[in-house]
Specification:
The protein is of the alpha+beta class. The protein has helices at 63-70, 135-147, 153-162, and strands at 28-37, 75-78, 95-106, 120-128, 179-185.
Length: 186
């Protein structure tokens, strides 16, 4: 394995107990979801960003409304509405605690080449000990629907209170292309 790694590709190594599990021993995980605003058509997405962000239709989003809506996601809730059903669903509690839900301006990977095009990159950051199946993509999709005026910020609170995955708006889940696991804390 070590012959396949580039020099300096391992930054640190730590001794752990035999009971350590990379998934179940995590104290928190931080996911980033990258949005691109200002595109009226898919062809306007910079080529180096095409599979690394989501450019929702309709151009610019109402970010303050999205930020207001994100506050309803903070804290401990039953996130049944915000999970997709899979084989683990019957065995998994839908209660999760969102420690962070931020929406902030970001930069493109090569933004100096297309600053003149008035494209805006935004990052949605979520931190929790764990997330449900597709929970982040559903939260992002709902927040984008708020930004597009399809939902109000208060609808996010109502969706949480419904506690039913069937209550989630159809076609509102964000695509996988903008989702990144940023860090895991142990």
């Amino acid at each position: 394995l070590t012959h396949a790694l580039r020099p300096n590709s391992i930054l640190n190594a730590y001794r752990v107990t035999d009971s350590f599990h990379a998934r179940f021993s995590a104290l928190s995980r931080t996911y980033i979801y990258r949005l691109l605003m200002g595109c009226s058509h898919y062809s306007e997405i910079p080529v180096f960003e095409r599979d690394l962000c989501w450019a929702p239709v309709g151009g610019y989003l109402d970010v303050p409304a999205m930020q207001d809506a994100a506050q309803f996601l903070l804290g401990t809730h039953d996130f049944s509405t915000f999970r997709s059903l899979n084989s683990e669903t019957p065995f998994q509690s839908p209660v999760r605690t969102i420690l962070q839900a931020d929406i902030r301006p970001s930069s493109g990977f090569l933004s100096q080449h297309y600053e003149h095009r008035r494209l805006e990159f935004w990052e949605l950051k979520f931190r929790s000990r764990s997330f449900l199946y597709r929970q982040v993509r559903r939260m992002v999709g709902a927040l984008v629907a708020v930004g597009q005026g399809k939902l109000t910020p208060h609808h996010i609170k109502e969706l949480l209170e419904r506690k039913d995955s069937r209550a989630f708006p159809p076609n509102a889940m964000a695509p996988p292309s903008g989702l990144f696991l940023k860090s895991v804390e142990y």
